[in-house]
């Protein structure tokens, strides 16, 4: 314990020394960090979000939608046909009692969900509706439903091609299934594609899995505690994360992992209460969602603008097609990889179709988005976003929406945001680490290098402003999907063989329930 | 006709008393009696874990199994065998009361011998102790050793 205390003290001292350098005297530290960060990442963001020629439609959004649609059709709408079996698997109806003590389907699903349910559901949805209007919700739900098939494909492969080491530990994910699966099928280039994925996964871990979380946690804290520099929040977060991932103080992660599900339940419960209190407006809210989905209700870019925002934020929230979940699900104990595919498809449903929709409905029903009463169209602010009550965006908008009905909820939300941010960071530190060790080998030195870099990026994320951070976070996460979905296209016939065989054995009674 | 007695053990002093009582029963029944020592590591498939914990879980299970085998099962088995009693033992993971009952039912055991619970605190008050749950739900006779 004393050793860890020294390490944490040394880390804080290093950060404090870095921050006290005189070069920051003329300009505030936050502004400086923001300027450097925006100029350093701009080219990457522009590349990933480049529009299709002659349109304003980013190619990457089309890439994800086409991928999810192809998997949905190729597997015959597996996400709708077999959802009952998915639930039975999570309940443990098909779990062999001799496997007790190892990672259950429920645990693998819960761990993956703790990495995805978080700020994407709270802040991300607010960003989507404040740019894309209520209609973005429709496209978000559709993306969630289609994304279930992407998740099914990648998680099946994640388990099938995982590495099981002699010491009993397990590593899996797109870098493993791309390299091993391509080799098995005799397709060249698997090693390169796997390495490209690993590079993007590291960037995704530092962006969406880290900086976005730190940034939004700081935004939420300033809402409750008043304005103060972001690097202070960043340093505190970095020290706690450092204590867990470098110091090995697992008790902090354990406590958080127990509180986070409770916070999730409280969040959904509060949203339900608000919806029940405003039950008379639910019909009107869905009217806004459908009307906005196809007309845009006056937002920039019309219905395409709503569609882009809906799809972007759904992908950012549920990470379907991104490949991160395949890393989380690969540790499950099962002799049938396809069973984890069935379980994982519940993830986008819970994350996007249920939780994100709740957030969007609360924002719409509490009328945070300002509408011109004369035209029924949204009032667009100077920054191109829909004008909101109080001019807020991101997590502050969600906070204001919940606060409009439950005055004390912003305090609870602040705590939820911090815990969600923390648990997401812990999850993504692991995903990034797996990608890092895939590239640089499994050594203590390589692990420590990544972990320290991860903590430094927390401070940068908290200090930078929302715009550049959210752009980089999106770009980094979506870049992972580029390599992953290429891999999935080549490997989906393997999943099809598994699916056909499994369903036939399930139908014939060869695969039996252990519980009635 | 043989008689199997399931004995719940956990390495505690109370568990040792359960073994001692089962040994006495075995001596009274004679050579037809067989003791099965079961050490259950409490585990639930519905807990929340970090990705790192999941990736190491298989390894952790092996460590926990070996530890329970060496610390709890083997010393008790050695003592029973030296006393000439037919005994076997193993480690299981899950909810202790359910596992002990299932093993007894599947193996047509005559009875289950456990020690009086030493569990205290809120959890035991709200959800009941392992012993109380076993007594309430068991399909075979249960002897609770004080």
Characterization of this structure:
The complex is a heterodimer of chains A (516) and B (146). By secondary structure, chain A is mainly alpha-helical. Chain A has one domain (107-507): Amino acid/polyamine transporter I (Up-down Bundle). Chain A is 75% helix and 1% strand. Chain A has 21 helices and two strands. The radius of gyration of chain A is 22 Å and the shape is globular. The termini of chain A are far apart. Chain B has a single domain (3-145), classed as HUPs (Rossmann fold). Helix content of chain B is 51%, strand content 23%. In chain B, α1 (13-29) links the parallel β1 and β2. In chain B, α4 packs parallel to α6 (130-137). The chains are: A mainly alpha (516), B alpha/beta (146). At the A-B interface, α6, β2, α12 and α19 of A face α2, α3 and β3 of B.
List keywords for this structure.
heterodimer; A: 516 residues; mainly alpha; two-stranded antiparallel sheet; globular; B: 146 residues; alpha/beta; Rossmann fold; 51% helix; Universal_stress_UspA (chain B); Rossmann-like_a/b/a_fold (chain B); Universal stress protein (chain B)
Give the structure's gist in a few sentences.
Chain A is mainly alpha-helical. Chain A has 21 helices and 2 strands.
Major sheet of chain A: order of its strands? 1-2
- The CATH homologous superfamily of chain B is termed HUPs
Q: How would you classify the helix and strand content of chain A by structural class?
A: mainly alpha
Biggest β-sheet description of chain B:
5 strands, parallel
Shape summary of chain B: globular
CATH superfamily of chain A: Amino acid/polyamine transporter I
Q: Write the H/E string of chain A, N to C.
A: HHHHHHHHEEHHHHHHHHHHHHH
SS field, number of helical segments of chain A: 21
Q: Assign the CATH topology of chain B.
A: Rossmann fold
CATH class of chain B: Alpha Beta
Could you tell me which chain pair has the largest interface and how many residues each side has?
A: A-B, 39 and 26 residues
What is the total number of structural domains of chain A? 1
Strand order of the largest sheet of chain B: 3-2-1-4-5
| CATH architecture field of chain B | 3-Layer(aba) Sandwich
Give the low-confidence spans of chain A.
19-27
CATH class of chain A: Mainly Alpha
Order of helices and strands of chain B: EHEHHEHEHHE
Protein name (chain B): Universal stress protein
Domain UspA (chain B): 2-145
Family (chain B): Belongs to the universal stress protein A family.
Organism (chain B): Marinomonas transparens
């Amino acid at each position: 314990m004393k050793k860890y205390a020294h390490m944490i003290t040394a880390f804080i001292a290093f950060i404090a020394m870095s921050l006290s350098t005189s070069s920051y005297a003329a300009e505030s530290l936050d502004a400086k960090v923001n300027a450097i960060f925006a100029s350093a990442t701009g080219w990457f963001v522009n590349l990933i979000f480049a529009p299709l020629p002659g349109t304003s439609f980013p190619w990457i959004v089309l890439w994800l939608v086409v991928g999810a649609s192809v998997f949905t059709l190729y597997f015959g709408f597996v996400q709708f046909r077999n959802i009952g079996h998915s639930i039975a698997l999570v309940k443990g109806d098909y779990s062999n009692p001799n496997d007790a003590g190892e990672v259950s389907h429920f645990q693998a699903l819960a761990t993956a969900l703790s990495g995805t349910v978080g700020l994407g559901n709270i802040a991300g949805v607010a960003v989507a509706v404040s740019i894309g209007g209520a209609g973005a919700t429709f496209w978000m739900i559709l993306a969630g439903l289609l994304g279930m098939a992407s998740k099914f494909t990648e998680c099946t492969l994640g388990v099938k091609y995982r590495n099981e080491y002699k010491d009993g530990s397990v590593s899996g994910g797109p870098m493993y299934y791309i390299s091993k699966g391509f080799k098995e099928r005799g397709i060249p280039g698997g090693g390169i594609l796997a390495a490209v994925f690993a590079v993007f996964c590291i960037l995704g871990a530092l962006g969406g899995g880290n900086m976005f979380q730190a940034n939004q946690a700081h935004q939420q804290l300033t809402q409750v505690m008043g304005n103060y520099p972001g690097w202070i929040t960043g340093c505190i977060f970095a020290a706690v994360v450092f204590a867990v991932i470098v110091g090995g103080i697992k008790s902090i992660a354990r406590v958080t992992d127990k509180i986070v599900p409770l916070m999730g339940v409280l969040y959904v419960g509060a949203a339900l209460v608000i919806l029940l209190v405003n039950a008379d407006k639910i019909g009107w809210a869905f009217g806004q969602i459908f009307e906005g989905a196809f007309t845009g209700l006056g937002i920039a870019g019309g219905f395409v603008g709503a569609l882009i925002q809906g799809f972007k934020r759904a992908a950012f929230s549920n990470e379907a097609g991104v490949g991160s979940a395949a890393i989380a699900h690969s540790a499950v104990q099962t002799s049938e990889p396809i069973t984890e595919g069935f379980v994982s498809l519940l993830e986008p449903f819970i994350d996007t179709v249920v939780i994100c929709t709740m957030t969007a409905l609360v924002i719409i029903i509490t009328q945070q988005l300002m509408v011109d009463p004369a035209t029924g169209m949204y009032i667009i602010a100077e920054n191109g976003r829909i004008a909101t009550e109080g001019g807020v965006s991101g997590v502050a908008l969600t906070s204001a929406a919940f606060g409009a009905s439950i005055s004390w909820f912003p305090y609870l939300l602040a705590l939820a945001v911090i815990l969600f941010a923390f648990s997401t960071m812990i999850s993504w530190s692991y995903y990034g680490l797996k990608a890092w060790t895939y590239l640089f080998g499994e050594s203590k030195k390589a692990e420590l290098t990544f972990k320290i870099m991860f903590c430094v990026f927390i401070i940068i994320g908290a200090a930078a402003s929302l715009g550049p951070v959210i752009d980089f976070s999106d770009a980094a996460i979506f870049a992972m999907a580029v390599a992953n979905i290429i891999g999935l296209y080549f490997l989906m016939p393997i999943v099809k063989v598994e699916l056909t065989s499994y369903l036939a054995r399930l139908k014939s009674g060869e695969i039996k329930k252990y519980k009635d | 006709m043989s008689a199997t007695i399931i004995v719940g053990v956990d390495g505690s002093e109370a568990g040792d008393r359960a073994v001692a009582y089962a040994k006495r029963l075995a001596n009274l029944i004679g050579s037809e009696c067989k003791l099965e020592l079961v050490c259950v590591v409490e585990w639930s498939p519905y807990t929340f874990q970090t990705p790192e914990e999941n990736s190491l879980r298989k390894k952790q299970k092996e460590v926990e199994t070996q530890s329970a085998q060496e610390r709890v099962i083997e010393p008790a088995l050695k003592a029973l065998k030296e006393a000439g009693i037919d005994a076997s033992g193993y480690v299981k993971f899950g909810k202790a009361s359910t596992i002990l009952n299932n093993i007894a039912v599947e193996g047509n055991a005559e009875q289950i011998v456990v020690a009086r619970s030493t569990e205290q605190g809120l959890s035991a008050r709200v959800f009941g102790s392992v012993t109380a749950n076993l007594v309430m739900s068991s399909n075979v006779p249960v002897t609770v050793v004080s």
